[in-house]
Amino acid sequence: MPLVSAPNPRILEIGSWEGRSATFLLTSPLCANGGSIVCIDHFDLFATQAGKERREKILHNLPLTGRPFRVIEKFSVPGLITLLEEAIKGEIAGFDWLYIDGSHRADDTFLDAELAWRLANEGAIFIFDDYLWGVQPQDSPLHPKPGIDAFMKLHQGEFEVISTSYQMVLRKKTKMHIGFLVESLEPVDIKTDAFGYYVNLALVVDTSYAMPATVAIYSIAKHSSRRLTFYVIDCGLGPNDKERMMLSIAEDPNVSLVFIPLNNNGPGASQGPAWAKVDLIDLLPVERVLYIDADILARGDVGRLWDTDLDGKLLGACPDVGFPLGHEKIERGPYFNSGVLLMDLTRIRGEVQKLRDIAKSTSSSKFVEQDALNIHFRGAWKPLNFEWNAQGLGTYARLRTADRETVNVHEPANPILVHFTGPVSPSLPLVLNPHVQPCLSKPWGYGRARGHPYAGEWWTTLKETPWAEWVESEEYRAWHDSERAKAKAQAIEEFDKVVEG
To answer: Are residues 323 and 403 in contact, defined by beta-carbon separation less than 8 angstroms?
Structure first.
């Protein structure tokens, strides 16, 4: 019999009959140093003599153990609801050992297990009795096995199987999570996870950005205390790209990843992947989303950003550090960076056609989709703190300009979302520009984002993902050298053109 690590384990038994198994558990090595049990049984609601006798026997047997006990004289579901309400109010703790033997019906067994699972501590032992019961066919709805199998399929990845015989024995790997509140309780945790709402995040990714997108997804999940769903707009990902993304969050039961094909009729297909930010407005099956670029590194929990009140605005965004008041190609005014966007999709969808029209007319604009979004949402966006989209760190963010002073944009001391702005592989003139040193670059490009204060942290995070081996491969090194050679060759070509001009 596997023992739990709790020195004084709390036991929950569903279906106790006369209390023989409960007595055995309380007097077994499991409770050698102490322990307690809660038994749930309806005792025929005392409508039969047999039910009354079973109640008398359990109340006689349990005191003989000398251990604390409690008998809940209800059917399993209302009995479990009673315990769940008490747990929500903090009146009882979770359980370390749970024994499910309340009914032989598959649906009853599933329901008992699902409710009891929410009362089980991390590491708890979960025992299903009668898994190989021989009275009914094993695929019958009157047999517990189909209910147990369905439960295990639903919670795949949240447990390890300890034993499979007449009993199915599991060890829970996830933390206790009840998932609802009761009316009598003050809802103090609504903004965290009390209602079970997911934080919805979206990325637009093609195969060239699959690696940094995996870092973004993994780092956000790593630092999150919330339930997350990532929606990835697939702009041409390969099977290996998707597999690595899925593997990066496979061990976290509170994180989901959904791939959504790109709309062939939208600007993302006709004008390039960056324009799929417009497509996602209609593609996502949610009302609110936090969009992030693939070149983002999370260093903390995005939950506080998700909870931001937009104060009636359509989206929240951080000022663009390079051009906080826009640039010469569009109308001057407050201008945001589109790398992190908290979007009220319900309201935005009402004018999405107007945004598509702007997208067509600005397809060759200086900052492409970012210009289109700024034109469309002018006056309708809420400025966010720079910690949520820290751009240009170690390079141009340090430079003081009149525009930056006007909007008071300065480097945050401890950014939560770091945005590696700049090209993957910078051109030679950009590398040699004496006014912005070190040059702009992504960490994985040949420039390695030298001088960026969080480039090393990005690489450390990457090595925790399924891409770790690839960046050590000859293929990656060859690409790295090739991009560097291309930058040199292009510079020479431009030089020759000017000289021969």
So the answer is: yes
Which tokens go with 418?
């770091």
Residue 190 pLDDT > 70, yes or no? Answer: no
Q: How many residues does the chain have?
A: 501
Measure the CA–CA gap between 296 and 417, rounded to whole angstroms: 6
Taking the C-alpha atoms of residue 233 and residue 251, their distance in angstroms, rounded to an integer, is: 22
Strands (E), 135-227: 159-164, 168-172, 199-205
pLDDT tens-digit map of 453-481 = 999 999 999 999 999 998 889 998 999 89
* Mean pLDDT on 227-244: 94
Percent of the chain with pLDDT over 90: 69
Q: CB neighbours of 420 closer than 8 A, spacing ≥ 6?
A: 212, 295, 296, 297, 442, 443, 449, 452, 455, 458
**pLDDT tens-digit map of 357-373:** 998 888 888 888 999 99
Residue type, 464: E
Which tokens is 93 given? Answer: 């703790």
Ordered structural domains, the chain, with CATH: 10-172 (3.40.50.150), 197-422 (3.90.550.10)
| pLDDT for the residue numbered 195 | 44
DSSP, collapsed to helix, strand or coil, labels residue 372 as: helix
Side chain identity, residue 182: V
C-beta separation of 185 from 90 below 8 A: no
Mind giving me the DSSP string for 214-281?
Answer: HHHHHHHHHH--S-EEEEEEESS--HHHHHHHHHHTTT-TTEEEEEEEPPTTSHHHHH-GGGHHHHHH
Q: What angle do CA 222, 223, 228 make, to 5 degrees?
A: 75
Gyration radius from the chain CA atoms? 29
What distance in Å separates the CA atoms of residue 403 and residue 291, rounded to the nearest whole number? Answer: 26
Quote the Cα angle for 130-132-137, to 5°. Answer: 105
Contacts by 407-414, CB closer than 8 A, 24 or more apart = 407/319, 407/324, 407/325, 407/334, 407/383, 409/319, 409/321, 409/324, 410/386, 411/386, 412/385, 412/386, 412/387, 414/299, 414/300, 414/387
pTM: predicted TM-score of the whole model, two decimal places: 0.69
Distance CA 94, CA 71 (A): 16
- Which DSSP category does 190 fall into? I
Residue 191 has pLDDT above 50, yes or no: no
For residue range 104-153, what is the model confidence (pLDDT) as tens digits?
999 999 999 999 999 999 999 999 999 999 999 999 999 999 999 999 99
Cα 42 from Cα 14, distance rounded (Å): 10
Enclosing H/E stretch for 208: none
Overall average pLDDT of the 58-84 stretch: 96
Beta bridge partners of 201: 230, 290
Nearest in space to 334 (alpha carbons), one of 354, 313, 355: 313
Tokens 């209390």 -> residue: 19
